[in-house]
Amino acid sequence: MAINDFITSTLNLEPNQILTFDSSVKDNKLYLFVTLKDSHPNCPFCGCKTKSKGYTKRSYNHLTMGGMPSIIVWKRRRYSCKFCDKSFVEDNPFGPEAFHQTYALLRNVAIELSNVHYSFKDIALRNNISSTLVELYCDSFIQVPRLQLPENLGIDEIHSSMAKYGGSYLCAFVDNNKRCLNELLPDRSKRTLSRHLETIPLSERKRVKYVTIDMWEPYKDVALKYFPNCEVAVDPFHVVKNLTDGFARIRIDIMNHSVKGSPTYYLLKTWNKLLLSDYELDNEPKYNSFFKQKMNYRQLYDALLGINPNLTLAYQLKEMYRKFNKEATEYNCEEWLNQIIQAFKIAHLYCYENFITLLENWKSEILNSFKRPYENRKQSNALAENINQKLNTLITVSNGLSNFDRFRCRSIYCLNSNILYSLTSNIQTYNKRKGKPRGKYKKTDGFMDE
């Protein structure tokens, strides 16, 4: 029957355990009144027979039902031993002894903690408990030890006010093969990274074969020092971003030196996207109100490249590197990159001076990014960037967080399927940030004079 299924699925009971069951609605809350059958237990102290000694009432917050919070009101039977005269109560099937929430509600809280789109307050409102209680259960049910380092490690950072030791960024370790978060550190400095990696056995660090990073120098130094068997690869996205920043510099300079409202200014201001991304240029012509004629992307593109020869040269060099980034392989990338570096040097464009230095300083790491050791994928930090977005989502929906230890545990729990929750009655919490101690004061009798 439906009522039997309901009892079994939500109350953690079999139908034959129920003696009486009733329900009522009061103050927009559903109350479930339950009494269990007498199981005639033996005394847990001496093993002798017992007798009933009346009832005591116990209430538990339960799951939301029909849009209303539900509360289980249990008439709990008390027993007295006929031999030793000691008292005890019947076994509890609803929830842990020290809790006022059922197993079903605690399980629901633990599951919702794995959703980065829910803040502690959201989870509290959905389960009709306090935010403080959700934080307490998060600290107690989710325990995240240090995980083993992966073979293919990605390192990236995320901006946060939780960063320690005077920094502004947290450091994230990502398993590029299993595609999950591996570790979260309170700072991205070389000191913090070194201190963490020094606690890891050398045999485990030797397992790391590939490390992908952005162009933060301490990541490279630490990787080469603590991972003796690794190859460091720089994320291609950050290289291309530095390139496009250089091209934007010359485009903006030419635009700012032109007359505002002129065709040059209009083209560089409005249609610069044609020089930054790949468009189908031979589209259907549309009326352009500035030039007062129909034009397609091809005509606008040609007009842009006709503005200044240095802009055209800068664009050609940019497209040369983009083609290299898309089409080069592990076997031809070195010779191809040498030709590109030479072409950039011959051009003598001021906007690419920093980019040329970047190519020379990070040459081996750029070449390593073209290797495809796993699933035919180039080495990149794309997964780390994706995980950073999810971490930012968790920070955003929470309107800021201050407890790093709690954030670390919940983040890894959300973004690593190997971390599971464990319902336990051993309650603990991470210490809050210590404030300044209160100074000495003198007690006074009565009210102060106005």
Describe the protein's architecture and organization:
- It contains 17 helices and twelve strands.
- It is an alpha/beta fold.
- Among the domains are: 2-94, no CATH class; 236-368.
- A hairpin with a 2-residue loop joins strand 3 and strand 4.
- The longest helix has 21 residues, at 236-256.
Q: What would you call the shape?
A: elongated
Q: How many H/I helical runs?
A: 17
- Global mean pLDDT: 89
What portion of the residues fall into strands of 2 or more residues?
15-25%
Low-confidence stretches: 446-450
Order of helices and strands: HEEEEEHHHEEEHHEHEHHHEEHHHHHHH
Structural class label:
alpha/beta
In which range does the helix fraction lie?
40-55%
How many strand segments?
Answer: 12
Main β-sheet description: 5 strands, mixed
Q: From the alpha-carbon coordinates, what is the Rg to the nearest angstrom?
A: 33 Å
Describe the secondary-structure layout:
Elements: H1 2-10, E1 18-26, E2 29-36, E3 50-65, E4 68-81, E5 87-89, H2 103-112, H3 120-127, H4 131-141, E6 152-159, E7 169-175, E8 180-185, H5 190-198, H6 202-205, E9 210-213, H7 217-226, E10 231-234, H8 236-256, H9 263-270, H10 273-276, E11 286-288, E12 293-295, H11 297-305, H12 309-327, H13 333-347, H14 353-361, H15 363-368, H16 382-397, H17 404-415
Parallel strand pairs: 2-4, 6-9, 9-10
Antiparallel strand pairs: 1-2, 3-4, 4-5, 6-7, 7-8, 11-12
